Structure formats: C-alpha cells, structure tokens
Amino acid sequence: MKSNSIALVSGIAPRKKTFGVIVRQGKKTVVIGNGAPVVVQSMTNTATDDVDSTVRQVFELAKAGSELVRLTVNTPEAAAAVPSIREKLDAAGCDVPLVGDFHYNGHLLLTQFPECAKALSKYRINPGNVGQGAKKDAHFADMIAVACQYDKPVRIGVNWGSMDQALLERIRDENAKRDDPWPIQGVMYEALITSAIESADRAVELGLPADHIVLSCKVSQVQDLIAVYRELSNRCSYALHLGLTEAGVGSKGIVASVAALSVLLQEGIGDTIRISLTPEPGEARTREVVVAQELLQTTGLRNFVPLVTSCPGCGRTSSSLFQELATSTQNYLRNQMPEWKERYPGVETMSVAVMGCIVNGPGESRHANIGISLPGNGESPAVPVFEDGQKKKTLRGDNIDKQFQKIILEYVQSHYGVKELTD
Prior knowledge:
Strand 14, helix 12 (361-367) and strand 15 form a beta-alpha-beta unit. By secondary structure, this protein is of the alpha/beta class. The radius of gyration is 24 Å and the shape is globular. It has 13 helices and 17 strands. It is 43% helix and 17% strand. Its cofactor is [4Fe-4S] cluster. Belongs to the IspG family. It comes from Oxalobacter formigenes OXCC13.
C-alpha cells in the first residue's frame, strides 16, 4: 500500500549508554561518555623533550578545537619534559588536558617520574606492549596503581599491529576446538575485543573505577573497525574511543576515517574520536582536528563553527572568484571562532552559503542565515547578499570578500547573545 506521508525521523541511533569518564585539568573538565557530546582529540608529532616545539603544537591543536591532546612519553627525557610543557601551557592560558601515550616502559616512567604522572590528565596504555608473562601483569598493575594514586583516567588501547601474543594464541586454541571454527579474521576480532575487555576488567579489580576507563580497539581497515566496535559496544559499557589507526595521507586518510567513524557514530557508538592522518609535507597538524569537527558537525552530532555551503562549480562559473570567496569565508569563520564562541553563544550554528551563479545561487542563499550569490559567466556583475531569506544588499567592486566578511560580523553581533569577556 502506498503511504500518503513520509516519516521524518533522525537517522542517528540513540547514543549507547556508557560510563562517564571525567578528564580534569585544573578547573577544566572534559567528559567522555554517559551521553556527553563526542569529544575531539588529537596527538602531537613533535619530540616531547623539545619543550618549546611541543608547547607550540599543543597550543595550535587546542586553538583549532582539540579538547584533549596526546603526547608521546617514551623516554626519561620525554617524561621529565612533561611538567615543563604543562607549566608553559598554563602560563599561556591554555588549559587543554594532556594525555600521556605509554608503550613498553610506561610502568617505569610513571613510577620514576611522579611529576610527569601528576601533570598528565590521562594515560594511554597498550596491553600488548606492557611485557610478557608475569612481567606483563606486574607492569600493568604498576601503571594502574599510579592512575589510582593520582586519580587519573586511563585509555586501554589495543592495536591490531601490537597484539598480546599469548592472548592471541589462547583465542586461536579455543577457536580450533570449535565445531565450526571462525576464519582468521574472526580470531583477530575476538582477540582485540577480549584483550580490551579483560584488561579493563583487570584494572577494575586492581582498584581503578569503571568510570575512569576508556577502551579502544584500533585497526587500519574500515570494515574491520566497524565490525570490531559493533561487537565491543555490545559486550561492555566502558566509554569508547574511535579512530582508524594508520588511516593514511590526504584524501585517502580522510575518506577512510570518515567512512568508518560515520557508520559507528550513526549507530550511537563512540564517545571520543581522533582522525589519525599522516600529514602531507608542509600540512598543519591541526588538519586532523578540523576533519574530526567537520565529521561531527556534518552528521549533526555537534556544532563547532559555521560551515560554508558552496556549489562545486561548472561551465557557468569558469572564474575562480566564487571558489576563492568560499575558501576565504570558511577561513574567516574558523579564525574568528576562538573569540566568537566566548562572546556570541550559539554562533557555531549559523549557516553561510557562497554560491557561484544564478541557477541555484539565490535559492540556496535564501536558505542560509547569510548567503551570497556570485555572478556566473555572462551574468550581471552585481552580487546579491541575503539574510534569513531576505535580500539585504547588492555588492559590487573588487573587495567583495571584505564587504561580505563585514556583513557576517554585523549579523553575528546583532543576532547572537553577547557574553562579556572578563580578565
């Protein structure tokens, strides 16, 4: 039977109920899980013992919108540098929480450098890299003891490329006894999930509360990540960190990460995300933060900055003017947001359209809070600007971008509540 109506419902499933993990830095708190907004995080690629370079990059990542920033802590020199990094960030007014990334020798660094352990807001432990046999249990226990001592949350992060070999052998042996054994891929999935959950449960036995634990099971292929996290989410209530490890360079890394994470987020799975991009030569590390924010914003999960709707261009728009205006407008909006988000609450939901010709330009521009329709080939050089569906004015001249930015600023100032800044 043909329906006479269309059910208008969101395609996003309710968020999976997980423990809420509080990450603290001074008076600042970031909540991961328990229905809190999905948290964006990133990681530095500077040598951590290069204090000034690391401080500079952390500051850039935080300014771009990273709500947690992870540092490699792999040597005594790196561990000794962490308190200085924290002090310099605090002096600069940057209160982003720092996460220490530990492999192999984390039990030594956390116990031998207590100031490092205290300066960090969260630890990341890979159970596949904490030792073998009895040493593994002892080293893991040492790290959890430090987390308990200083009341720090921990991400237990299992990676496809650094599995606990003893556990993997155990899963293989169990699988061999099945009447219908899993394929090798299924064995790897089960090993990843089992390692994460058993490690988390062991941490709880050692005294770390369940609401201090975040889990991750990172792989490098899209369908593997989706399959693993679906099952992990079904089998535990720990907060989950999503990320496609070694996603790749440029568009490949972006597409792969978005393809995997958007499916899981759409199903209500995931409490914090990182987009693990390999930077192209000269590319800013902040690119991964921008992609993470745009992923969450375009899927309707969070708003960070007004995004520009713009057409792809065609034979009607052989001039580069509208492409240049779309880019400069998006950059302008992003650059203003550190101040605007404090001064003008709600401005991140504003919609802006930059269109290239008469075909869809005026219509799309009217749908945005602020829209501009540039002339295509052979069209009048007049440039109409619309506010909330109504034509506001027509721009002409060579400095259209500056004129349009002024109109945007005036709109923000008149339409969003002003919050007075204090010292």
